[in-house]
Amino acid sequence: GAVVSQHPSRVICKSGTSVKIECRSLDFQATTMFWYRQFPKQSLMLMATSNEGSKATYEQGVEKDKFLINHASLTLSTLTVTSAHPEDSSFYICSAVRDMNTEAFFGQGTRLTVV
Amino acid sequence: DAKTTQPPSMDCAEGRAANLPCNHSTISGNEYVYWYRQIHSQGPQYIIHGLKNNETNEMASLIITEDRKSSTLILPHATLRDTAVYYCIVRVGGANNLFFGTGTRLTVIP
How near does any CA of chain A get to the CA of B98, in Å? Predict the structure, then answer.
């Protein structure tokens, strides 16, 4: 299967700072990438859909000014958690698709802890 | 996307077949059944998908009932590494924004 890589895998930051998470498709071009969040013992929740070269589409209840998404190339999308607070501590996961008729491939996830 | 219902947890003996059921009684004609699994603290992994016919790959088999209202994922010879949460998702073909339910936590017992 295709490879999607996230970096970093773990990050600890202080409250009020911003954190950037990268999602890369290593062996294919991804026109669309998705960002999910998963709290402990819960399922994945879709946050936003990121299309290369255009603005991301956010799910209801997700603050677009807090979770900045940039998809500047066909192999890279970034999620920046701005002014992070302890309640933003979560497992953030991205997925990427080659085209809309193939399955999604997921990154290994980034565990964010805000202290 | 249609809602799916899965049992919250199941156990399976190592080496035996694991049969994971999923109900999707409101599935529409253009929706596929997808299965993913998530091993603890990792991103989900694609397993298999199908529309109407049964499907098999190197990981698993997918059995879809004739009325398409339910399906079963079969892991033919479960190993300890198959312990994970298994998600059944139905979605329209061509849409990859996946909405995950609560899944089934499969525990493979030695």
Answer: 7
Over residues A58-77, the pLDDT tens digits come to: 999 999 999 999 988 889 99
Contact assignment for A43 to B44 by CB distance below 8 Å = no
C-alpha–C-alpha distance, residues A9 and A58, integer Å: 23
What tokens does A20 get?
Answer: 């950037």
Determine the Cα–Cα distance for residues B82 and B77; give it in Å rounded to an integer: 9
**Do the Cβ atoms of B108 and B12 come closer than 8 Å?**
yes
- Choose among A100, A102, A92: nearest CA to A31: A100
Over residues B14-73, the pLDDT tens digits come to 999 999 999 999 999 888 999 999 998 899 999 999 999 999 999 999 999 999 999 999
Those residues with Cβ within 8 angstroms of residue B2's Cβ, 6 or more apart along the chain or in another chain: B24, B26, B27, B28, B31, B90
Q: Tell me which residues of chain B, numbers 19 to 38, contact chain A at a CB-CB cutoff of 8 Å.
A: 34, 36, 38
